[in-house]
Amino acid sequence: MLVMTGTGTGVGKTISTAAIAALAAGQGQRVAVLKPAQTGVGPDEPGDLADVTRLAGPVTTRELLRYPDPLSPEAAARLSGLPTLSPSEIAAAASELDGDHDLTLIEGAGGLLVRFDADGATLADVAWSLGALVIIVAEAGLGTLNATALTAEVATKRGLTVAGVIVGAWPDEPDLAAVSNLEDLPVAAGAPLLGVLPAGMGTAEPAEFTALAKAGLSPWFGGEFDPERFAGRASAQK
Q: Contact at 8 Å (CB) between 7 and 111?
């Protein structure tokens, strides 16, 4: 079971989740993706899980609650008058899915400490209650080291294990900071660099998406990504 969290919003968390799901499903694994709280999407609009199934194929997906406003789950629930989610509810849903799947991915909303309710429940509480590994999805460029280090430090202090970090949207023309961060991100995370996914791969067709996922994710996920080789190529382009 993996908990997917980001260093912020829009860092490529859904694409990273779909990429891991696509590789696992391609290996014949039964894959489930749980999105506890979807915010900023209307009742009949496609959410993040629609992107996952479009890209990764027919994996099992489950969304627990949806809020129309693009806010944290707690703030969106408060504004809409809809109920909030507790860690126990999320953990129960994840455990149920994990019972008949080989891999369960839990995609949070925003970062690790974004609140689900007024009591301060977060994705960190969910990961702790499940004993799940945490994958940090980070930005490529300037500012990402601090956000990654903060996320990893909070996770560790809360008794969580960070399995690795993924760069969720590698730019076509990386700057000096992005290239340098390939070496520094694992230090900030205290965990290995498990993948670098190209920006814009969410527009690919499923077969191309899976090929990009295989190239961009570590053998830990069933991919072929080699961080040293990738960093060498990126440095040579500068």
A: yes
pTM for this model (two decimals):
0.96
- What is the CA 96 to chain-centroid distance, rounded? 20
Q: How many Å apart are CA 190 and CA 161, to the nearest integer? A: 10
Q: What is the pLDDT of residues 109-142, one digit of tens each?
A: 889 999 999 999 999 999 999 999 999 999 999 9
Distance CA 172, CA 175 (A): 10
Q: Is 35 part of the annotated catalytic residue set? A: yes
**Angle 48-56/206-216 helices, nearest 10 degrees?**
90
| Closest C-alpha to 206, from 35, 32, 53 | 53
Catalytic residue among 35, 157, 214, 238: 35
Q: At what angle do helices 227-237 and 176-189 cross, to 10 degrees?
A: 160
Q: Which two tokens stand for residue 30?
A: 């039964």
- Which residues on neighbouring strands pair with residue 106, listed in sequence order? 3, 34
Q: What share of the chain is helix, strand, coil (3-state, %, to 5)?
A: 45, 25, 30
Angle among Cα 174, 178, 183 to the nearest 5 degrees reads: 135
